[in-house]
Amino acid sequence: MTAVASSRMRTAAVAIVAALPPLLAACMGPLPQPLVGLNQRLEAAGPARAPSLAGDWMALIVSRGGRDRVELVDLQRQQPVPLPGLERPDAQPLSVAVDGRGERLALVRQLEGRTELVLYRRNLMALQPVPLQPPGVPRRVSLRADGRELAVEVSRQGQWQVDLIAVP
Amino acid sequence: MALLALLISGCGSWSWGRRSAGPVGWGSADRQDPALSGNGRVLASVVRRDGRDTVLLQEQPSGTVLPLRHLQRLQPHRSPSLSWNGRYLALLVQEGPQRRVVIEDRATGRLHRLPLPGSLVPDSLSLAPDGRRLAVATEGDGRSRVQLYDLTALLEPDLPAGLPVRGTPGEAR
Asked: Which of A8, A100, A101, B171 is the most buried (most CB within 10 A)?
């Protein structure tokens, strides 16, 4: 090996070693941070599932006292807000979605032996049934952040379909 | 107020505009797990492709399929969730025996992985439209739980057009 080649190899090795720390940092990257305070409050609230985030709001289904219920959490205040007129003790929520203002919630629930899709407007404290045309059985629902459209997974004659429904 | 609520609850189907999510293609008609971007211009759903549940990203209302870079061999896909403009797609994927939470940044092509404590198995997720938070529902240790994560150190915000971006990643909490 010539002196020139040996020098080039040393230079390359030094360059590789110098580049390792930033390369490793890039590989690791910043990691998502658990929101500890909120997570502790959620943990204390009971078993939970089916979260939906938008703006400073999170809707989810929480089990308490053997019953599933919809909760809407104000993430800034780290507190659930009341949802008068939404809950029925005989209803089983399956899927929930919230818009970015925390104003509209779309909900799929089982009630009296059937599965239905409803829209809840918090400022009116009112539930509005969302009819499916043609009829079908809804399962999961997603709501646009601006609250203007629903995407609903619907079973019809053994096939899963997605309906897009504009909210009036 | 009560009268207004009654009137609203009595509205019939005439007031609801509907449209189909469009054909799935790929020889499958089943479409599940829908998620709309915040502005409604992108729809994610899960369809069966070559026998594997695969996320499908489509512009709306045209139905044009949008490409994804990293997810081809990570099926089954579950629980897709989109940011405001559809820049970020968060979902559950399968890597070997592990079900993992990942976020594909469609602008940069990067794939971000969200590590979870070993005993927790992710069941569903929701990405905040601005990309600043992620909620993950998990099963493990004998109960289901929802945990929230701050993504501001990881992702640029994905905001509606015209909204100012305040602060830098890591500051906007």
From this structure: A100
